[in-house]
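Hi Y.,

Following your request, here is the sequence exactly as I used it, all 254 residues.
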Amino acid sequence: MQLPPSLLEMAPPIEKGFADINLVRLRQRGMVTHESGRTPVAEDFRIIKRHLLNDARASGAKAIPNGNLIVVTSALPGEGKTFCAINLAMSISMEKDARALLVDADVARPSVLKVLGVQAERGLMDVLLDGSVDLSDVILRTNVPSLTLLPAGPASRHATELLASRNMSRLLEELANRYPDRIIIFDSPPLLLTTEASVLVSQMGQLVMVVEAETTTQAAVRDALARIEHCRNVNLVYNKSRAFSGAEYYGYYE
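Below is the corresponding structure, written out as tokens. Let me know if you'd prefer a different format.
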């Protein structure tokens, strides 16, 4: 039986490897979208991304190995790392000469897709567990120009070992080098909660650590930084500060 034209027009297109991000909900939550305009949050992430992009594109003596692999993490849960990772990826996708890939690497408690309002069954863990699964099988194109997603995939009790495996190293090399204009943003587990975070961070070119204003203690920040002391390119984002007219503010420190 053939559907009438009116119903066909209403039905969303079904396309393999495609995710329809709920942009209306993101805007309602005050997050960055291509249509959000010059909001304070959008402007803050324009500042944050500029330094990261400059380092990702550096050449010669200033070049950073895998500089286009950027991991976003925090010392503890609830500091806003996923919020910052999504906003950063969305802001980078607005660049005229860059594409963003957002990876949900918080494999124990993935939340990127939930925030974006999309669903997927397979992802990063499937590629690491099954050699027959290719990146192209699990990366999702989206309704946002120049933004793709790599979901976490199923949980695994061997997540730390998988993230430290040669398969992961090869996957990161492929991600870093397949497209020279692509910036890959990883939403990582909190540094003080799991061992996966330190393993993942050790393979990244740049790190952004989100610190919740007036909540995260100096001791927690010091302990988290001690776990990534081998990283040379660490940046701090001071999140949820209300020091400016009662609005949330995102400070940036290198």
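Residues 27 and 36 are 6 Å apart (CA to CA).

Thanks again,
Q.
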